[in-house]
Design brief:
This protein is an alpha/beta fold. It contains eleven helices and 15 strands. Strand 5 (149-153), helix 6 and strand 6 (180-184) form a beta-alpha-beta unit. The protein is globular and about 55 Å long. It starts with a strand and ends with a strand. The structure holds magnesium ion. Residues 184, 186, 210-211, 235, 255, 284 line the site of magnesium ion.
Length: 344
């Protein structure tokens, strides 16, 4: 098998601001796995907390690892790469390329190879932290593009009053649309802020809160969980399946991402472990194109909530294969996960 690498700059249509900072775009690494007649595709969105902050670093890790050979089943390759210290985001790119190739070799969509149906719930579409007047402009554009659920980023460094002003702007702009509202604080709140905001947001029809407290504050989550006004999901706090037992008694659900956990192989384990603990499941994304989003969408049937929307905010998306239809990021119905670079 031949493994290939390409780096492509992904420019965001609208810069995305969350509690920790603003992102305008990223150099993503695309990985191909070629068996001589078929090619599988994978993608890495770089990230400091995902172990490789640049495409170059991810590529170097994968080149090193692949030089040792890629014999065995995908699960064995994943375990060896993980043990060798390949960054989760780089491993995700290789893993999804191998699964894509496997499904193409089997001549079936990846969701079917994984024993799943093509069912998928609506995807949240993200509204970043913005001044209220910008949020008022942005929300109608997202709704016009077909969004039926909005994930509103709060946890503004300017404090909870700024959060409230932005939330009210979104609420007013979305009024009458029927869109579901969800909130992600990205760990931007103190325990007191979180308690206060969750009560305030619950009164305004929000469905759940994601990562109210910073990663590392899971001890305080136990306090917040008692008498919580909204279901609590963790994202930054949950990287791999082994993390789940440590906080399962203080959250309602987990948000996994292929870049955080190292790809499809570990995502399957996280979903299974979360279910075993009676938790709800969600799949989210980093700054990914249609390649990685298509891979995530292939797992859609496993999740109660889906947040696969980063490809919709690219200008342009260099890839294709993750159609957004009626508010749903749909798994492709062709062999593989369906995602590939447009010029490949
Ligand atoms: Mg999140």
């Amino acid at each position: 098998m031949k493994i290939g690498f390409r780096t492509v700059y992904l420019k965001k249509r609208f810069p995305l601001r969350i509690s920790r900072g603003e992102i305008t775009g990223s150099d993503n690494l695309f990985v191909s796995a070629d068996d001589g007649s078929l090619t599988g595709w994978g993608e890495m969105a770089p990230g400091m907390s995902e172990g490789a902050e640049t495409a170059k670093k991810g590529e170097a890790m994968l080149r090193d690892f692949c030089a040792g050979g890629l014999d065995g089943a995908i699960h064995d390759i994943w375990d060896r790469a993980h043990a060798a210290g390949v960054a989760p985001c780089a491993l995700a790119a290789l893993d999804m390329a191998l699964w894509d190739l496997s499904a193409k070799q089997a001549g079936m969509p990846l969701y079917r190879l994984l024993g799943l149906s093509r069912r998928a719930v609506v995807s949240s579409v993200t509204v970043g932290i913005n001044p209220p007047e910008v949020a008022r402009e942005r929300v109608p554009m997202l709704l016009a593009a077909g969004a039926r659920a909005l994930k509103i980023k709060l946890g503004s460094p300017e404090g909870v009053e700024a959060d409230k002003q932005m939330f009210i702007a979104v609420l007013e702009a979305a009024e009458g649309s029927g869109a579901v509202l969800r909130v992600d604080a990205n760990g931007g709140w103190s325990l007191d802020d979180a308690r206060h905001m969750m009560g305030w947001l619950a009164k305004r029809g929000v469905e759940y809160i994601e990562q109210p407290l910073v990663r590392g504050a899971e001890g305080q989550l136990a306090d917040l969980f008692k008498d919580r006004a909204l279901p609590i999901f963790v994202d930054e706090s949950c990287r791999k399946s082994q993390d789940i037992p440590g906080f399962a008694d203080r959250v309602d659900g987990v948000n996994l991402k292929l870049m955080k956990c190292g790809g499809i192989t570990e995502a399957l384990r996280i979903a299974a472990t979360a279910r075993a603990f009676g938790l709800k499941t969600m799949i989210g994304c980093m700054g990914e194109s249609s390649v990685s989003i298509a891979a995530g969408a292939s797992l859609g049937a496993l999740f109660d909530y889906i947040d696969l929307d980063s490809h919709l905010n690219l200008d342009p998306d260099p890839a294709t294969g993750a159609p957004f239809q009626n508010g749903i990021t749909l798994p492709a119905d062709i062999p593989g996960h369906g995602g590939h670079l447009k010029d490949a």
